[in-house]
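lol ok so funny story. i was supposed to be doing the assay writeup but got distracted and ended up predicting the structure for this chain instead. priorities right. anyway since i did it might as well share w the group, maybe its usefull for someone
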Amino acid sequence: RDYLSDSIGEVVVDDDEAYESIRSFMKHTMPHFLNRLRRHEGDGPLFNRYQIESQIDSAYRRRVNLPSGGQIIIDQPEAGICVDVNSARATSADDIEQTALQTNLEAADQIARQCRIRDLSGLIMIDFIDMRSSGANRQVEERLRQATRNEPARIQIGQISRFGILEMSRQRLRTSLVDATHETCPRCGGTGRIRGVESLGLHVLRMISEEAGKERTSKVVAELPLVVANFLLNEKRSVLSQIEDVFKVSVVLVANSAMETPEFALRRVRGKDEDEDTPSYEMTTVKAPPPALLTPSSPKPPEKPAVERTLPDTAPPERKARAAKKQKDRKKPKAGFFARLFGLDRKKKKKADAGKKRQKSHPPKRTRSRHPSKGKSGGRGRKPGDSRKKGGQRPKAESRPKGQQKQNKGDGKAKAQPTPAAAKKDGEGPGGQAPRRRRRRRRRRPAADAQPPS
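and the output, tada:
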């Protein structure tokens, strides 16, 4: 479920029980991936057929080889994850710059793959091969972004610095492969390096001298690995004798075969020696494990889950594609019982149809007022003498005598004079002209600094 995505082309299973379990799970949760599940049919093992063992081995190795001959080295210290890119035997390109670019591009793809396989998380520092061209650096950054595009984890990628180091962070989804399958080395403590024999022998010699110089010390017993004990008894015998003569103490070196470098143990004996008769080969404190503990034990059977089956017995029903219906095809809600009984729905339909016809036959006209500052037509700016009606429509022109109509047709400039009744109705004055609107003149307020008239 977590790893199966559109980028996976095929899932091959070589076990019948696992195949049926996976098929039933995919049938209920992701039926669109059923065509990608396939049963392995063949004589050879599945891992050998697709060379999976070598890929698993590469996930545990510190060095990973690249196709062109280069390699990447992956280390996981406490502070973060360090990846170093080396050209090694990569000499396929013509010049050094092209070889570095090709190796860095292959390393970007391989680093993204190794982060996904090993579940690496946290801060990742990548040391690419230095390139002079800034365009080549941008090309490597873009290649790394393309390789990590389908990652389920959240990834942030920086830019390559002038020292050739790129920083990226990856979200922690689960425990990494190394932490889940590896144990810390008891000999080196997880550092990967141990102290040499000569360096460890000189360190033990200084510790013996320090313990011998303390008060009331009668004996110093040093329990050492075989190689360190041989080094001190043969190469540093004169120094041991000098310590015994100066501090008047006895120095005993006990070689223990169960010890490994850099492990050792010192014991200071005060006053009179109580175990004076004890031989040196019995003074060992670190014992070798018995042979029974070295034999591999049989693996424990895995614990069975409390709830073994969580899937239903039957598959979910298939969803049929529903065609999108248009607004006009939708059914209108039916009228109620009383509305149908008294015919109220018919009256509503008639009123709606009459309103639609009225809007089609008489569309509303928009009128503009002559004085926009006094409001719209039919508002406060209209005077009682205005001849417009309330609806904003002008009155229809009254019928005129035939003589006046002919006069208008013959002489376009001459205007027909209305009758006295029409003049009164239109609000014209005695001179045959409409009365002009009187504009109120606003009195100007005198300025504050103006002097009053004398």
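The radius of gyration is 51 Å. Residues 96-118 form the longest helix (23 residues).
back to the writeup now i swear
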